[in-house]
UniProtKB/TrEMBL annotation:
GO terms for molecular function: ATP binding; kinase activity. Residues 1-129 form the DAGKc domain. It holds the Pfam family YegS_C. This is Diacylglycerol kinase family enzyme. The lineage of its organism: Bacteria, Pseudomonadati, Bacteroidota, Flavobacteriia, Flavobacteriales.
Length: 299
């Protein structure tokens, strides 16, 4: 077997070299031909395509966070080469969703051993920008922007910007067109969801399934003290989601419009400000290496 490890060296502020040393030793011990590709932020997609064509891996590992997985999903979409996750990002949202082992070396062992491959959906915005986990406009996008511009990484940095933005949160009007209906609403955050939980463990969407061919649009109408307290307990009880503060609709494509430009983030990357954007799902775009622990596999 040939294994290609695609590594984001800066994701999560985690030094990947100790893991890569252990990964090489593991692969060498079992006769698995392996190669490492490190992203640089410059022409990564084209450089990766060259490696894929020359090395011809049987499996690819995304070593990083949601952004690393998204990068690979875009390059590998509609390819027969399957990808698995080694969680080494800031929050590892999709890895958490899919019940991937939190220990990178254990996740690698699962990736190598598993013969279970599922179809993972991919969201595309304005036929240009992609999302594999969660995207949003409103308070969280502003938090992500602050986080993205900070040289520090990790949950403590994210918390710093969360507290800062919480004091400035204001509702904004929006229109959602989908399923041959039009919804006019106002809220502090609008999420486009291919899954259920943020990497923090807080569920935003109880209906999400990244392998079902549809996505959810979730409107958060307000954020107050009791909601935050309940969100903090959400790892133990997902029933904190209150219909009085949230509206959700399921679809496979939608158009979202705002009265004033709103900041959009997708999988932890700030895309820019938009007055409107279109969203659609690409069903089964990516072949995902997974295990029976994955709660979204068809039984």
């Amino acid at each position: 077997m040939k294994l290609l490890l695609v590594v984001n060296p800066v994701s999560g502020g985690v030094d990947k070299d100790p893991f890569l040393k252990d990964a090489k030793a593991l692969c060498d011990n079992y006769g698995i031909e392996n190669q490492v590709f490190k992203t640089t932020g410059t022409d990564d997609a084209e450089a990766l395509k060259v490696i894929l064509n020359t090395f011809k891996p049987d499996k690819v590992a995304a070593v990083g966070g949601d952004g690393t997985l998204l990068f690979l999903a875009i390059v590998l979409q509609h390819s027969s080469i399957p990808v698995g996750i080694i969680p080494m990002g800031s929050a590892n949202g999709m890895a958490t969703e899919l019940e991937v082992s939190k220990q990178p070396i254990e996740a690698l062992k699962e990736l190598i051993m598993s013969e279970i491959v599922g179809d993972l959906d991919l969201l595309v915005v304005n036929n240009e920008h992609y999302c594999i986990h969660l995207g949003d406009v409103g308070i969280n996008a502003k938090i992500v922007k602050g986080y993205e511009n900070d040289h520090k990484r990790g949950m403590s940095t994210y918390a710093k910007y969360f507290i800062d933005e919480l004091g400035k949160v204001t509702a904004f009007p929006m229109t959602v067109e989908c399923n041959e209906k039009t919804y006019d609403a106002e809220g502090v955050m609008l999420c486009i969801c291919n899954a259920r939980k943020y990497g923090t463990g807080i569920p935003i969407n109880l209906e999400g399934n990244p392998m079902d061919g549809v996505f959810e649009i979730v409107l958060i109408k307000e954020i107050n003290g009791s909601m935050l307290i309940n969100a903090g307990l959400s790892s133990f009880n997902e029933n904190f989601i209150n219909s009085q503060h949230q509206t959700s609709v399921q679809t496979n494509q939608a158009k979202i419009t705002f009265k004033t430009p709103q900041l959009l983030q997708l999988d932890g990357e700030v895309i820019g400000e938009f007055l409107s954007f279109d969203v659609r799902i690409i069903k089964g775009a990516v072949k995902l290496i997974t295990t029976q622990k994955n709660p979204y596999l068809e039984r």
